[in-house]
Amino acid sequence: MLTCCSVAAPQASAMYPSTLTQLARANPFSAPLFSLQKVEEPQQSHHTQRPRRLAAAATDDVSCEFGSSKYYALCGFGGILSCGLTHTAVVPLDLVKCRLQVDPDKFKSIGNGFRVTIREDGIRGLAKGWAPTFIGYSMQGLCKFGFYEVFKIFYSDLLGEENTYLWRTSLYLAASASAEFFADIALAPMEAVKVRVQTQPGYANTLRQAVPKMFAEEGLWAFYKGVVPLWMRQIPYTMMKFACFERTVELLYKYVVPKPRSECSKAEQLVVTFCAGYIAGVFCAIVSHPADSVVSVLNKERGSTAVQVLKKLGPKGVWKGLVARIIMIGTLTALQWFIYDSVKVYFRLPRPPPPDMPESLKKKLGLTE
């Protein structure tokens, strides 16, 4: 899933041929070990080499070039499926979680929340808000996964091969934060509609009822007043989601899986993806839950600000519904990565192996003879 541009060590071009297999091993991104001096690539007699980028291992049968328009488009499509479908599937749990946050006196626990909702609205009541959820999170997934790939390659090109490997965790964090900034702008309108439908009984039952009513009451601001709390919630969440996932995959293949990824079947690789996604999801839920509570209450109460809601909830109130969110987000994140990786497999997109130290860096550290 990673790539980086190739920066050759001086006088080493003859020793390290430009093969796809070798470049595949030169993958991004970890906390830096030390500062590296920029190394100038020697000029060839007939041309000057430029930084190169690799899509996948040489044995992979890929359908497009890594970083091409087709690659980004299909990654965005994978994001639509992974986020849109999974968030819609857990709407009942999300509805109960939101109600726990905004009305804890009435909805005292997950089980109680389900019972009260079914008693008052019937089984169909658990599906309230499914339409804005599907539309909003599909748009978010398009930007989240698509832009993550864009920014990961962009920042990697700026760093170069060696620093990309040494700073790979920081690169994951920066790329995911940049992507989520735009993803939340796409999500905010439908998130506001969803919360209003789910947490205000009698306000509106459908997307078509809620949108004109919200616009008539508060104008366009009604759909974007929650974007800052969304950034507060989603950017830390996404940074943890992507960085934790990438590093967990790396560690699983290194210490848990008994064979290299290249020897694993596609099904085995997807199992690793699911496990890493669930681990990442648990951490995501914890990191982003306080801001999630603020977003839920803010979209319910007109005229309130994020600071006012935060003071009202207090230190304990911001953690209401955490267990429900851990279950929801853990499952959600695991399924999202599974679906996203499955899309890459189905469309034969480049999927480089976990990062390995570049040969030029090994030489500098004296790890090669």
From TrEMBL:
Catalysed reaction, written as an equation: phosphate(in) + H(+)(in) = phosphate(out) + H(+)(out)
Pfam families: Mito_carr
Keyword list, A-Z: Membrane, Mitochondrion, Mitochondrion inner membrane, Repeat, Transit peptide, Transmembrane, Transmembrane helix, Transport
Single GO cellular component term: mitochondrial inner membrane
Topological type in the membrane: Multi-pass membrane protein
GO MF term list: phosphate transmembrane transporter activity
Compartment(s) where it occurs, according to its Swiss-Prot or TrEMBL record: Mitochondrion inner membrane
Ranges for the Solcar repeats: 70-154, 167-251, 268-346
Assembly and interaction partners: Interacts with PPIF; the interaction is impaired by CsA.
Protein role: Inorganic ion transporter that transports phosphate or copper ions across the mitochondrial inner membrane into the matrix compartment. Mediates proton-coupled symport of phosphate ions necessary for mitochondrial oxidative phosphorylation of ADP to ATP. Transports copper ions probably in the form of anionic copper(I) complexes to maintain mitochondrial matrix copper pool and to supply copper for cytochrome C oxidase complex assembly. May also play a role in regulation of the mitochondrial permeability transition pore (mPTP).
Family label: Belongs to the mitochondrial carrier (TC 2.A.29) family.
Listed name of the protein: Solute carrier family 25 member 3
